[in-house]
Amino acid sequence: MRLTRAAVLARAKAAALDGVRRLNCWGSRLTDISICRDLPNIEVITFSVNGISDLEPLNQCQNLSELYLRKNNIASLNELFYLKNLPRLRVLWLSENPCCGSDPHRYRMTVLRNLPSLQKLDNQAVTEEELSQALVDGEEIMAPPARRNVENGCPESTESSAAESTTETESELLNFSLEETNKIREELGMKPVPRDKFSSFSPRETDCNRKKRNNVLNAILLLMKELDAESLEIIQQTVGRRLQALRKKELQEE
Questions:
Q1: Higher pLDDT among residues 220 and 134, named by residue
Q2: Rounded CA separation 31/2 (Å)
Q3: Which of 49, 7, 74 is nearest to 170 (CA)?
Q4: What percent of the chain stands above pLDDT 90?
Q5: Rounded CA gap, 59 and 181, in Å?
Q6: Which among 224, 158, 213, 217 is positioned nearest to 189, based on CA atoms?
Q7: Cα-Cα end-to-end distance for the chain
Q8: Is 31 exposed, middle or buried (0-12, 13-18, 19+ CB in 10 A)?
C-alpha cells in the first residue's frame, strides 16, 4: 500500500507537506513511502509494523531525528546507506526486520559503524565503547542495495512480494501480547504495563476475539498520543456514555 499525500496531511494534521514535523503510520500496511521525499521538515517518523522494504525516500529527510521501523520487510543492512547522510538522526528502531539476521552483535555493530551519531538503537542506549568496537566489528556500507531485475532487463514485479508482506502484516497485527504491547508503549514514550495489570479475557472468548480486542486496544493507545485536549475530551465523553450503556445492559441481564 502506498502512503499518499492526503493520508500524511490527515495523520499529521497539517495543511502542507513542508509543515509536517511528526508522522505516525504504525501498522498501516505500507509498502511504498515515496511521499517522504516531499517531507523536508519531518523530525519523527513511526513506520513500525508495516511492509516497507526500501528506505531510499528517507534520504531527503534532513531534519529527521527519530525513526521507528520495527517489524517491516527490510531485507538488507545496505538500506542504511540512505540514512548515512541524515545529520540529525539520533534514535533508530530497526529490530525484527530480516536484515537483523541471526547475529545480533554483528547487526548492532554494523548499524553503529554506519550511523555513529545514534544515541539509541532498538530502544537501547548507545555507548562510547560500542561506537569504538563498531569500527572493528561492524561492516562499512559503501553503496545502496542492488535491486533485483528479471532476465529480460525489466524491473521485477513487486505485486507478489507486496501482497505477501501485507498478509504477513495483517497476521502480526492480530498477534499482540504483553511484550508487544509494551514495545508499542515504549515507542510512544509511555511506561510499560505490569504483567499483573495486563488485560485479561474471559475463558469463553475465542483466540480470534481475544486477539482482535488486543489489537483494537493497542491501536487506541497509539492514536491517543496524537490527539489534542479537545479531541481527548470528546473521547472521554464517548467512553463515559459507552460505560453507562454497558452497565445498564448488565443490570438488565441480571
A1: 134
A2: 6
A3: 49
A4: 57
A5: 30
A6: 224
A7: 47
A8: buried
pLDDT band at 140 (very low <50, low <70, confident <90, very high): very high
Whether the CA torsion 204, 207, 212, 217 is positive or negative: it is positive
Q: Is the whole-model pTM more than 0.70?
A: no
Grid look-up 456514555 returns 241
The per-residue pLDDT for range 49-88, each reduced to its tens digit, is: 999 999 999 999 999 999 999 999 999 999 999 999 999 9
What is the band of 220 on the pLDDT scale with cuts at 50, 70, 90? confident
**Site of grid cell 538500506:** 79
Tell me the DSSP string of the chain. -BPPHHHHHHHHT-SSGGG--EEE-TTS---B-GGGGG-TT--EEE--SS-----GGGGG-TT--EEE--SS----GGGGGGGTT-TT--EEE--SSGGG-S-HHHHHHHHHHH-TT-SEETTEE--HHHHHHHHHHSPPP-SPPPPPB-TTSSBPP-HHHHHHHHHHHHHHHT---HHHHHHHHHHTTPPPPPGGGS----TTS-HHHHHHHHHHHHHHHHHHTT--HHHHHHHHHHHHHHHHHHHHHHHHH-
Question: What mean pLDDT comes out for the span 20-28?
Answer: 94
